[in-house]
Amino acid sequence: MSWTSIAAIYLLFWVITAFVVMPFGVRTADELGLEKVRGQADSAPANFRPKRVILITTAVSAVVFGLFYANYLNGWIGPSDVNVFGKPAGMD
Question: What pLDDT was estimated at residue 91?
Answer without folding.
Answer: 64
